[in-house]
Amino acid sequence: MDQQVVLVDENDNEIGLEEKLKAHQNGGKLHRAISVFVFDKENRLMMQQRALTKYHGSGLWSSTTCSHPFPGEKSFDAAHRRLKEEMGFDCDLKELCAFVYHADMENGLRENEYDHYFVGHYDSEPKINREEANDWKWMSIKELRDEIKKNPKQFTPFFLAFFERVINEAEKSGMKFE
């Protein structure tokens, strides 16, 4: 059976289920998602290059991990599950914020997500799952901002849609970046 995502209203109230690919077609139905930002002791962000086999955003750079909770699964639990499945490790996470974002993808797909953003800290190398991630690297926020300005097409449209807002929320919570 194809994976289903949880459809939600603008207040993150569950209103139904939809097959994942269908939820991203025809303008995109609003659905619940998670994104994880893992930082090291220097507050560099662990970036993930998506696997070349992904149905959208393949080979592009994005946050440490992002995905969708299963029906009945809490967003917090989905964040831990996907961190282990994609990057091969787990760490303490805290929910930083949640908001709706939109991003147009290739092949006529559209992200329309009520995304829960989690932050964590980890100071070792991941053991990436090659079916999920092609590569990884640490980047300072300054390096990341410079690279986004120079080469925005290297990044997933959804990462570009929420990156600055998440970093602003992290700064409000007390994190410091160069």
Structure overview:
The chain has a single domain (4-172), classed as Alpha-Beta Complex (Nucleoside Triphosphate Pyrophosphohydrolase), CATH 3.90.79.10. The protein has 178 residues and is an alpha+beta fold. The protein has helices spanning 20-23, 75-87, 141-150, 157-172; strands at residues 4-8, 14-19, 31-39, 45-50, 61-62, 65-67, 93-104, 110-121, 133-139. The mean pLDDT is 94.
Short overview:
The chain has 178 residues and is of the alpha+beta class. 24% of the residues lie in helices and 35% in strands.
Q: What's the number of domains?
A: 1
Element order: H for helix, E for strand: EEHEEEEHEEEHH
CATH fold label: Nucleoside Triphosphate Pyrophosphohydrolase
- Largest sheet composition: 4 strands, mixed
Q: Which word captures the global form?
A: globular
What proportion strand? Answer: 25-35%
Content-based structural category: alpha+beta
Examine the secondary-structure arrangement and name the CATH architecture. Alpha-Beta Complex
CATH superfamily: Nucleoside Triphosphate Pyrophosphohydrolase
* Total of DSSP H or I helical runs spanning 4+ residues: 4
Q: Averaged pLDDT, please?
A: 94
Low-confidence stretches: none
- Quote the distance from N terminus to C terminus: 45 Å
CATH class: Alpha Beta
Strand order in the largest sheet: 6-3-8-7
Number of strands: 9
Q: Helix amount, in percent?
A: 10-25%
What Rg, in angstroms, do the CA atoms define?
15 Å
